[in-house]
Design a protein that fits this description.
Number of strands: 8
CATH architecture: Alpha-Beta Barrel
Helix content: 40-55%
Number of domains: 1
Shape: globular
CATH class: Alpha Beta
Structural class: alpha/beta
């Protein structure tokens, strides 16, 4: 996989019985790639991964693997609290032909040491064995309460330079992203929001892995491809940042599913796993008014 560019952190559509709707998921992923995203991430935060059982996540991996989605453009989230579940999901994804994994830290216990986290990731890598794998660590302390320190990242990269390849930084602190880029040459630093896309690219970062790219994919891709081709991208980035800021005012999963539901005119997009809820009609109307003022279209 090319570890740079725009990756959409895919939503996971559900049926009315709250089971994963695999055909709709695959169709949505194809739309995201067609909109210009370089890749798609399944089973991340936006995909409600931690609301699904290990068996459900395995079934999703299998459904995606059996589709005609290009494996080289797919990243699979496999990080769990329980060490054996992370190993099981990771090995299964690798066995199904995926080589890039997104790994949360074990997030239930708080105030854990770097030593404990190092042992956790060392154990996973040792059980994965000599399979070809690219691991993207997932830094999201607002949700996990378990950050990746720079010293831990440096240690893991020294231990496993061919496997620990990058980080998705959803901490919202651009200074932290800058510090990682500066300290770890060749390490793929992805911003967790497109608000920082152009900024991260300018300092040698890889791009972004974004929840809102589920609906803003073509705008995010436009910024990335203009920058990559040496064309001006500042005005495009400013507009994109404004749109993302509007969306950040709402619970993202319910909002994004509502937007996709209306885009597709498909009621099957209205379902979320509790405790997440779909956006209500009055709030949706308010959001659409704001987005219309930005000339936003899908």
């Amino acid at each position: 996989m090319q570890l740079s560019g725009v990756f959409a952190a895919s939503l996971t559509p559900l049926s009315s019985d709250l089971k994963i709707n695999h055909p709709l998921l695959i169709r949505h992923a194809k739309w995201l790639l067609g909109a210009g995203c370089n890749g798609v991430v399944f089973l991340g935060t936006t995909g409600e991964a931690n609301s699904f059982s290990v068996d459900e996540r395995i079934a999703l991996i299998d459904a995606v693997a059996e589709s005609d989605l290009p494996k080289e453009r797919i990243m699979i989230g496999t990080g769990c609290c329980a060490f054996p579940e992370t190993v099981k999901l990771s090995i299964h994804a690798l066995d199904r032909g995926y080589e890039t994994l997104l790994l949360l830290p074990p997030f239930y216990y708080k105030n854990v040491t770097d030593q404990g986290l190092e042992l956790y990731f060392r154990g996973i890598i040792e059980q994965i064995g000599d399979r070809q794998v690219k691991i993207i660590l997932y830094h999201f302390p607002k949700f996990t309460g378990v950050p990746f320190s720079l010293s831990l990242l440096e240690r893991l990269v020294r231990l496993y330079p061919q496997m620990i390849c990058g980080i998705k930084d959803s901490g919202g602190d651009f200074d932290n992203m800058r510090a990682v880029c500066s300290a770890l040459e060749g390490f793929a630093v992805f911003s967790g929001t497109e608000k920082y896309l152009l900024d991260i690219l300018k300092i040698g970062g890889a791009g972004c892995i974004s929840a809102t790219a589920n609906v803003t994919g073509r705008y995010v891709a436009e910024v990335y491809h203009n920058w990559r081709n040496g064309n001006p991208a500042e005005q495009l980035q400013n507009r994109l940042s404004t749109i993302r800021k509007l969306m950040d005012a709402y619970p993202l999963i319910g909002m994004l599913k509502k937007l996709v539901q209306m885009k597709e005119n498909n009621p099957d997009w209205q379902y979320t796993r509790p405790p997440n809820l779909i956006m209500q009609e009055d709030t949706y109307s308010e959001l659409i008014q704001k987005l219309t003022q930005q000339d936003f279209t899908f």
